[in-house]
């Protein structure tokens, strides 16, 4: 595939955005969710206390709603979120691994490389290969850093139109161009005859409905499905076009960058999240996967004097930005902190950035592509899920935006290299000697 | 986006937009419309806009069936006669299977 510069740019921006954003966002906006159980606790406290005469009893009543209950709610919500994120991450990885195993296109190494990894690795010399992969990584990371900073600056100065246009362009490219390539390769693999008119219909429908679901309004499940699909497509592109060693070094470097960018006070991603929270705005659509199933039953019925006000603000928020589910959620979530009667069943859900999906899938995809041993692939898969669990646990403890890449990628890399170099030869010689354990 | 929490007028407008959008060669959009608004249109207790939503869902379903019929016919014809069409067949083909005439 001859990639033109313009494609590269939007692709780069997309990947840069996604990478930066996701790490940012993967951070979950669980603070909204976390405030929920606390809210309901105090709400439950209030009716009880109002019914009591002695202030002393009131105090005790309030104190008696122990932290235990709050913790229990936190843990309950935490566990639910873990499951809610396991499924899409697993699906994305399954799609990528299935494609890698069946369609040979994505494992064929071409001499073409992305312009972000300009140094060609020479397979003969180890030292040179290592050096070039480090240089490639530096180039790629600096591109990403620059892109993130530009994005944050644009966001701070409220250049929303520009950002939206950029995002729309990159989703357009993903939904049309990359899926066209993907379909072509799948048809070639399965030796199916396909005609242009039918193909045009398929790509056109897929792309337009995708744009509508992601950037405008659509059913939640369909939006989630599209986000998973575009993450998988992007991961496949990375797997194909990143040179071998550079890919691993880039994965490691991205995790470190993620850690820095989200946790350091001056980190661009942290600033982005904080600015968005200050303005009570959702982070951009098309960059975040939202697992929320939110409904505002409480709002409609509540006697809360704030409700009318809040509802107005909600609608204002929803109309001002072309509401996508995630936007609505965050907008509503921001308001809901002060709402009174909320149905306990309302679940704000968690948000995970698309870049996280992409890099998890890249790791597992590369594990599947190299050597084709299922042990390694499964080991990486399990490692990533464990990392995700731990990250969510930390999120429940710290209650603020966290990077989702570092822990999972570290575990994944450790498991990949150790399984590849230690477990595989072990299993092979066990099998060769017909010794079953 | 959860249909539960948007007011009925917005639901109607959304259904209508999906219906109109489907005319741009987008049967998939009509399919999404039918599946998404099916419960709203047929399984919910009546409200004012429900009649119109029902009509849009029915019309989308009709359009969808027409498109499916057209596409199925075309695909069947193409797959069956592609080899016999010679040059035209090749011109129309995006991928040509290996190993057949």
UniProtKB/TrEMBL annotation, chain A:
Region (Disordered): 1-70, 304-333
Biased segments, Basic and acidic residues type: 29-44
Main location: endoplasmic reticulum
Keyword annotations of the record: Endoplasmic reticulum, Golgi apparatus, Hydrolase, Membrane, Notch signaling pathway, Protease, Transmembrane, Transmembrane helix
Membrane topology: Multi-pass membrane protein
Compositionally biased residues, Acidic residues: 1-10
TM regions (residue ranges): 82-100, 130-154, 166-184, 196-216, 223-239, 245-263, 283-300, 374-395, 402-419
Entry remark concerning the domains of this protein: The PAL motif is required for normal active site conformation.
PANTHER family: PRESENILIN (PTHR10202), PRESENILIN-2 (PTHR10202:SF24)
Protein's job: Probable subunit of the gamma-secretase complex, an endoprotease complex that catalyzes the intramembrane cleavage of integral membrane proteins such as Notch receptors.
Quaternary organization: Homodimer.
Protein name per the record: Presenilin
Organism: Cyprinus carpio
Upper classification of the organism: Eukaryota, Metazoa, Chordata, Craniata, Vertebrata
TrEMBL record, chain B:
GO CC annotations on file: gamma-secretase complex; Golgi cisterna membrane
GO biological process assignments: Notch receptor processing; Notch signaling pathway
Keyword Nucleotide-binding included in the entry's annotation: no
Predominant location: Golgi
Record has Membrane as a keyword: yes
Membrane-spanning ranges: 18-39, 60-81
Keywords, sorted A to Z: Membrane, Notch signaling pathway, Transmembrane, Transmembrane helix
Entry's family note: Belongs to the PEN-2 family.
Protein name as catalogued: Gamma-secretase subunit PEN-2
